[in-house]
Design brief:
Length: 842
Amino acid sequence: MSFAVASKIARRELSGGLKGFRIFLACLALGVAAIAAVGSVRASIEAGLGREGAVLLGGDAMVELTYRRANDAERAVLEEISTAVSEVVDFRSMAQWPDGSDRALTQVKAVDGAWPLYGAAGLAPDMPLEEVFAGRDGRPGVAMDPLLIARLELEIGDPVQLGDGRFVLMAALTKVPDNATAGFGFGPPTLALIDDMVAAGLIREGTLFDAQYRLRLPPGADLDATRAQVETELAGSAPRWRDSRNGTPQVRQAVERLGSFLVLVGLAGLAVGGVGISAAVRAYLDEKTETIATLKVLGAERATIFTIYALQIGALTLLGVAIGLVLGAGLPLAFAPLITGALPVPVEMGLSPKPLAEAALYGFIAAALFTLWPLARTQDVRAAALYRDAAAGAGQWPRPVFLVLTGVLLAALVGAAAWFSGIATLTLWAAAGVFGAFLLLVLAGRAVRRVARWLAGRRALRGRPTLRMAFASVGGPGNEAASVVLSLGLGLSVLAAVGQIDNNLRGAISRELPGVAPSFFVVDIQPDQIEALTERVMGDPGVREMERAPMLRGRITQINGRPAEEVAGDHWVVRGDRGVSYADELPEGTRLVAGEWWPAGYAGDPLISFSANEAEEIGLGIGDSMSLNILGREITGTVASFRDVDFSTGGMGFTVTMNPAALAGAPHSWITTIYADQEAEAGLMRDLSRTWPNITVFSVRDAIAQVTGLMGQVAAAITYGALVTLTTGAVVLIGAAAAGERARTYEAAVLKTLGAPRGMVLANFALRSAILGAAAGVVAVFAGGLAGWAVSRFVMETEFVFDPVSALVIISGGIAVTLLAGLAFAWRPLSASPAGVLRARE
């Protein structure tokens, strides 16, 4: 037969409607819609970041210096290449009532008169910035975030103290146009003038701040050439460049990573849907056995039979993918106000062809992958099927060509996911995990049937006919045990993994760390303040321990005369500024791993003691040279020793420690960590802030709460993605229950004919659903726990603690879902007339 004949037959069979393909379409559409929606939101965020790049950055480009402001020569270079320059000094401080009665941590954005170059600040009441900074009654003014105003119970016009300065709260700061460059902050923002902050003693040599110079460039300026010019002319200043093409790299990277991970979760949902797709196609083709056999009798060849049903499945695949794309593109647009309101970055909602094309590709490959084997079985139907009840190739493996095609499609699906996500390693591990979970769940489904069949024959159940019938049904031929355990189990596995990972994240942050972490970090302590502050802290009966050390900030620029990035790659120690300290003698509790500490009073060439773990990771050895840029001064020293530094305790630890003479004369401040009883923390924090207004006190407990909340938001996003997988599994489960409704109707008729009451029949149906749900839940807990252990052990590098509460919720959820699905399709079999059902089967 020709292709034209095959397409004509396919078209005629499809004209009968979509009966039997609703589950097929639902599974495919859900998987494609989830991937398309995640990709569309991600593309919208990236489009918003790109469109508002200059506003978010605060300029066409930005040059940043650490813990010092640009000198006249550096400022002249920046003014030469730009049409306008705006200076912003960013740091943390304590805002408090002048009487010291209440205080809170704030992120101060100190600006000049040119700020902002792009965008506008939001103020309530609305007024010019000049009026805000002018203040009243001879005191300069500030604007504060509404959260900070509420925290301190301030009113507009109230006095407020920052450092040694007294200010007036002039307005609430409702919008900061370039706030995306601030990164992770521990306090709400305060807007003030740079000169006022200098007068308050908060910006001085040795204090911790970042000086950012936002540039408005001439139209058509070459960003790459301008960057090269800045890095050449300011080479000794260790400038950090950023431009509007990537004004918020941390936000963009976070969006890309989370979006890619959620796409992988969506692919897991598509894999779950594949079970329903395969089952729907298999059931449809089983009903077509006589039709296929008739075509064989009439001379149809294998290829013709395959083509007929492949065309039908292909047409339905197009429909399912189209439905998924419409949902995936439409839902983000429908919920655009909620999405844009929940995100702190600009979102340009619209139709994005690229994520929709990716989702369509995933859908087509997945549909082909999961329908290939059922389609291959159509070629094995014999003409004898017209004369006896013969299943289409039951129990047979497809021919080798289809096995090869299956491998190619699987490789294409995984390869596409690795390519589009940009995180190939995670994708491959995720694919291996899904495949392992598939295999485990298939084996579990078979094991459930065998165990149920064995239990049904035990003497202990002879007095319990309902339970025995339930086990016999689960273990009998043609039962939906395999599809239920596989579809529901995979969805529950993803949720179980998320639950275990989330619990271990929170455990590592909120349970393990506080047991060893300090109560406070105190920074910006001036050298002439450290002794008095130490005496006050150690004289407090609630203080158990205090550590202190001088601190500067430096950037590692060269290792053995080569750029540090060439030697260490993308390692975190060379990506930004590192804490640098000095010590004459080996600090108490410090253990040398290799090398020797310098003698007391050593005044020779600079020597460096480096963190041992980080040194091993970047290939650093004793005797190697290292150059650091500290406050614009290049210092080159020799690595003399390696120390064991444990950053996980939350205590004081420096990657780089040098001999004191190497840093002689460099402006610096001191940092302390204070370990105190919880009941003494509030009074100690209040007294330190009142006595030394210029210092900044960080509460470790508050920081832990903020990080825990952030991790909770990430876990919630992943959980929502996992719910799509579970929803798809529920659809497959409903399909399996609907497909078995006819068999249950006949079974109920037989049982009622034999005298079984309706309650016993219903209990039989409920018990078998509960057994399958419990089995799926138990396997999911095992698979999810294994995934959680792998992520905790190899990704987060934390100890894994199994969470039994999460496991019980998963198992209970599995039982509840299967019970609801099973009982929903049990009422019609119960209400059917036994006589009518049995007569129809004659």
